[in-house]
Design a protein that fits this description.
CATH topology: Rossmann fold
Largest sheet: 5 strands, parallel
Number of domains: 1
CATH architecture: 3-Layer(aba) Sandwich
CATH superfamily: HAD superfamily/HAD-like
Number of strands: 7
Shape: globular
Number of helices: 7
Strand content: 15-25%
Radius of gyration: 15 Å
């Protein structure tokens, strides 16, 4: 199975994400509590993708524990092999244990970095409209929006 590395920017909507990612890659610390909104259809489409690929979640803005809490809150943690943070990104081929891996992100800076490190990269606004559309492109059947959750349960 080819590993899929999904950036948190693909299923979380951050305010000023490019600025945050740029500050991190520039070596500056971000002390401000980062605000984000969860895009539920994209988050739950990770489950569908996990039936075909090994899933790793990469976070450049949030720390590993915060990402794991989000995944556990929405019961998606069982479908993710591991969470990778910014400090581990240069060793990503060793972590995913494969020379070939796909990287899905909504951040242009992360897209450029993953391309330099040897990943086949997809940029959400450029190649696909959403993570769900990416998942649909890898399968033979289309996933309906809103299929994963009930408004009463969220």
């Amino acid at each position: 199975m080819i590993p899929q590395v999904i950036s948190t920017t693909a299923f979380l909507k951050f305010n000023n994400i490019e600025e945050l990612v740029y500050l991190l890659y520039d070596g500056r610390k971000i002390d401000v509590k980062t605000r984000y909104d969860v895009i539920l259809d994209d988050l739950f489409s990770i489950e569908e993708l996990s039936y075909r690929f090994r899933i790793f979640v990469f976070s450049s803005v949030l720390d590993k524990i915060e990402v794991k809490k989000i995944l556990m809150r929405y019961n998606v943690d069982a479908f993710v092999t591991n969470v990778i943070d910014f400090t581990e990104f240069k060793r990503i081929s060793k972590i995913v244990n494969s020379p070939t891996w796909f990287f899905v992100t909504a951040s242009k800076t992360e897209y450029d970095l993953s391309t330099i490190n040897g990943g086949k990269s997809y940029l959400i606004p450029l190649h696909y409209r959403s993570l769900m559309e990416y998942v649909n492109s890898t399968s033979k059947h289309k996933i309906e929006e809103g299929l994963y959750y009930s408004p009463r349960c969220t």
